[in-house]
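Table S2 (continued). Query chain:
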Amino acid sequence: MPREVSPLIVKYGYRTLAILILLTVFSTFLLVEYFLSGEKNTFLLALSIIFYPLTIILFVAFRLTVVDRIHKKYFQNETLLNKSGKVLKGSSVGSKGSANISNEDWSFICDSTTKEGDTVEVVGILDDNITLKVKKIG
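Corresponding output:
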């Protein structure tokens, strides 16, 4: 059974999220140190104020560059159309399941109820480019 992966990890990747989390923790540490220290060192406050917006800017920048570049370079939507695969995790009507299509695990939404082992065929790709619209064929 495939392990469910967070959509955040799919979009950004582990390394990118690790960098962003470390920046956020560092900024928080500087801010806490500023308030807890007896002397009011404005340098700590200034650094924390700089690192919080920097983290947000990097969060947006990584999303715009890394994910879109990988999608444009390596993925053509047309190659998956009319391909069939096996359902790994069944789903009810309108909810997400997962299937192995062309030796890759994909999320899908189907108009009928599916269960593990069913065969599905790709009829379209949703706007997020990681979820397929499929129909049950067996």
